[in-house]
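ESCALATION

Customer reports they have been waiting on this structure for their group meeting. Please prioritize. Original submission:
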Amino acid sequence: MIKTRGLLNYLGFFSVKQEAQLYYDSISVGFFIFAKKGFMKKWIILTAFLAFVFQVNAQTGTAYGIKGGLALANQSWNQSEREFGFAYHGDLFLESVNDSLSIAFYVAAGYHLRGSAIVVNSFFDPRTGITFPRRRINHRFNNVAIQAGAKNFHRLKDKNIRGFYGLGLRVEYTIDYNLAYSNSEGYDLYLNRFNYGLSVLGGVEFEFKNFPGAVFLELSFHPDVSKQIFIPPGVATYTDPVTNMVFTFSEQKVFNRTLELTLGYKFIRRVEWID
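Update from on-call: job pushed to the front of the queue and completed.
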């Protein structure tokens, strides 16, 4: 019995070092494609590309599992920072396993809550004679996300513990949203339901000795490249219900940024080759 060293190396085309470099170069090409082509086309190309690389790299086995946790969601509205909103997320994922290489490719799909919050201090409105209490208003965007990327693993002093970091590309679809204090339906024309961005992650993983599985703790940051909401200048208006005065808004650009803390478990299925 022998452990595979990767398909290309196993067939005699490349050394382990050359094959590893090929994987890194392939990922670089994938990111280049993502940056230069049209959005839908580049996602299809990237997904097919990663599926191919995933199949080539997963020569020792595959891992699959579930992960989820809490998050701090934030948004930039016209470069104006909002308060962090508390959020949560959950994913199913598939990951390549190759004991001869430190790199692993992954795909994940699940639910991610995006948004932000604003805090309105208590104030007295002389026009109505009403004192409004201090309150926190949450803006919520319920998104389904698909993410694909690569991780680099490094074993620590304990052979069963590995640290890792990674980079991924992400596409999301907004199922629904709620802006709480305003008329959400008024934003429907300006809401981008499809969004995309990057995912930067790092963490630590503990693999069990007598069971084919591992638990991991991960911290990740997810900035969007696309705009969740975009309203051209002079288009959106607001009518004050008390004075009936009409206000015209300037250009509105909303970007999502989320910091997620994740706890996960993965089942590891290893394959042994018989010579």
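Sent to customer with the following note: The first helix runs from residue 7 to 10.
Escalation resolved.
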